[in-house]
Amino acid sequence: MNAKHLGSDFDSFLEEEGLLEEAEAVATKRVLAYQIAQTMEEQKLTKAAMARRMKTSRSALDRLLDPTISSVTLLTIERAARALGRRLRIEMAEA
Predict the structure, then answer these.
(1) Long-range contacts at 59-65 (CB < 8 A, ≥ 24 apart)
(2) 5 with 16: CB under 8 angstroms?
(3) pTM for the complete prediction?
(4) Residue 72 exposure: Cα atoms within 13 Å on the Cβ side
(5) DSSP string covering 9-68
(6) How would you label 15-53 residue by residue, b for 16+ Cβ within 10 Å and e otherwise?
(7) How many Cα atoms within 13 Å fall on the side-chain side of residue 21?
(8) Cβ(77)–Cβ(64) below 8 Å
(9) How far is CA 16 from the centre of its chain?
């Protein structure tokens, strides 16, 4: 039995494997995409209407809402927040 990671936490495992930063970025994007989609649903806002509010294309909005695509700019996320009447707040936390 390979006990290399026995007793370590999952974050430590991901860090040792060089995957922690990517996993955190994907998780953050999933949360943002979920929050945007939920707020759109609450406001009964279609994707077409949301794209118009953001002054972007429907395909750009689809990329923003796709939780598997982590390469979205802060400007795009900020535009989505503003289009929904929200503010984007980012903070750094201690590791």
Answers:
(1) 64/33, 64/36, 65/33, 65/36, 65/37
(2) yes
(3) 0.79
(4) 24
(5) -HHHHHHHTT-HHHHHHHHHHHHHHHHHHHHHHHTT--HHHHHHHHTS-HHHHHHHH-TT
(6) eeeeebeeeeeeeebeebbeebbebbeeeebeeeebbeb
(7) 1
(8) yes
(9) 24
Express as a percent the part of the chain with pLDDT over 90.
Answer: 56
Q: Rounded distance, CA 34 to CA 67, Å?
A: 8
**How far from chain centre, in Å, is Cα 51?**
17
- Please give the Cα distance from 55 to 21 (Å, whole number): 31
Are 58 and 47 within 8 A, CB to CB?
yes
- Name the token pair of 54: 């953001």
Q: Which two tokens stand for residue 95?
A: 């590791």
Condensed to tens digits (0 to 9), the pLDDT of residues 18-57 reads 777 777 888 888 999 999 999 999 999 999 999 999 999 9
